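re: ur question from yesterday

yeah so i grabbed the chain u mentioned. its 94 aa long if i counted rite. heres the sequnce exactly as i have it in my notes:
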Amino acid sequence: MRRGVLRPAPATAAGIFVCALLRRARNSARRSGPDPHVIHRRMKLDLPSADAKGGTIPGVRTPITIDGEPMASPHPAPRLGEHTAEILREIGEA
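ran it thru and got these structure tokens back, copy pasting raw so excuse formatting
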């Protein structure tokens, strides 16, 4: 192998499935609502947000579970710049 040449890691069946499921869920939500797989696996999220028109932001969680518990944050992603001042203070740039 030549130095400096990156080779893709071999794909695993689980990794391919997760990527395909998330892509399918995202595309389905854009078209006409949640995908049946998303509903069956309880992956659909409605995260509370005071800034959202309906009071919630729709989303899709990762299909990964640990000890039967779904891995999903109960909060929406931070707004653009929401934590900038805090981070700059922590690194001494504020």
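noticed a couple things. Strands lie at 44-48, 56-60, 65-66, 69-70. also The chain has one domain: 13-90.
anyway ttyl
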